[in-house]
Each structure stands twice: as structure tokens, then as C-alpha cells.
Write a structure and sequence with these properties.
Elements: H1 2-7, E1 13-17, E2 20-23, H2 24-46, H3 51-76, H4 78-83, H5 98-116, H6 120-144, E3 159-160, E4 175-176, H7 179-203, H8 208-230, E5 240-241, E6 244-245, H9 246-276
Antiparallel strand pairs: 1-2, 3-4, 5-6
Amino acid sequence: MLSLLHNFQPAAVLAAYGPLTIYWYGLFMVLAILAAMSLTLWLAKHYQINGEVIFDLSFWLIIGGLAGARIYDDLLQLPYYWQHPWQSLAIWRGGLAIHGAIIAGALIIWLFARRRRLNFWRLGALIAPGLALGQAIGRWGNYFNQEIFGLPSDLPWSIPIDIINRPAQFIGRTHFHPTFLYESLGCLLIGLVLIAGHFYRLKNQRLDYYFDVLAVALYMILYSILRFGLEFIRLDPAPAWLGWRWPQIASLMLIAAASLLIVYYPYARLNQRNEKK
């Protein structure tokens, strides 16, 4: 596996049939969506939640998540997309920011939960493991696009990057850190941790009222830590502020919000119970 990564030269196009072009990125996006939906449906059965609810929510999450991810990335690279507006529609070439998808997804789940009179945190806890799994699969699309790679490296698992995709300051280097792989493995581990948490929760109903919040917050914290660390070696362009790349700043904000949620929620829950009495 390591030797294959080190020597294989990925290409963005999977197949072309006349005017029809199939991209690896698009294939992995579809696989990521299907895997996330399948895992969420599987978990929902253990909570006796109707699969139609998950299908309906997934429809809006797919549309809204893709739109949010693209809009977020457009805003981060506004000068480029201002000059090339049609490039904003070419999602098969990459340019989907996960933080934008998370923001849009959270808003959609909240609106969906209000309209269907469902528990927002329960839906979020069910979606979180599938989201992590989808990220783990989707990052392989970045590999074939030759994007989301890190600093030059001579490690056995470093990956070759075409000269046209290399940053100017490293034009003479051929192999780079596969940060896509690091993030993929990290997200897979996060997904497994969350799935294990669900099964522990099903056996320990005393955590029932609090687990949903914990699962959502845990995803936010674990992924943010992973992303924060990887940003130190990633070479893709990103806005910076006070020496920090914007994804690092966004990750710190998510960690802070999740930490406050973990601390505040039990008190809010207790106050609600006291008010009902």
C-alpha cells in the first residue's frame, strides 16, 4: 500500500465517453454520500426512527451541504471566483470546504427538527458518525485531484505531485505529505469512536438525555483538533490572520463552542426540569 502511494501517479479523470467525463472526485463524493446515509439509517433502526425521516433529511443535507461547502470556499477565495464566476459551479474539480458544509448542515437539521417536531440533538448525534465516514471516503477524491497535500517529504508513503500542481517554492520537489490520507484515517477513527459511543449509550440509558449533545460536541472537537494540526503542513492556499490559517481559526471556534456546549447543557437541562416543577 505504501509503495503504491509512493509510486502511483493519480489522474483526475476516471473515464471519458465523448462529451461525458467522469471524475474520481465525483465518484468518491457519491460513495461518501451513500456510505453516510447507509450508516445513519443503520443507527436509526436501533433508535426505532423511521427510515423515511432519514431519507427526507438526507435529501436536504446533500443539497444544502454541497451548497454551503461551495459558498464557504468561494468566500475564502473571493478574488478568484469574482474573476471566474463559472468555476464556482465546477464542484467535480474540488473546492468544497467542510466547515461550510457543517454550518449549512447544522442549520438544515435545526429547521428540519423544528418542522417535524423532532429532537435536534438526536438527529445531530445520528448524522455525526456518517459525516465522519463520508469525510474519510471523500478525501480520496482530493488525492486523485492532486490537492490537499502537505509539505515535501521523503517518507515511504509520500505521494508524487505533477509539476503543474506544485507550489512555486517547491517546484523542484516531487513527493509530498499525503495530508488527504492523514485526514481520511483520522475521520475514520472519529467515526468508529462515535459508533462505539452509540452502542454504549444504547446499553446505558442513564446517559440518554446527555449523549446526543456529547456526540455532536465530540465530533466537533475531534475533527477540529485533527484539522488544526494538519493545517501546519498543508500547502493549499487559505486566508490567514495573525499567522494562523483560517481553517485553524474556524477549528478553534468550533472547539470553544463544543466545550461550552458540554459544560452548559447539563445546567440548561436542569433549569428546564425545575421550571416544569
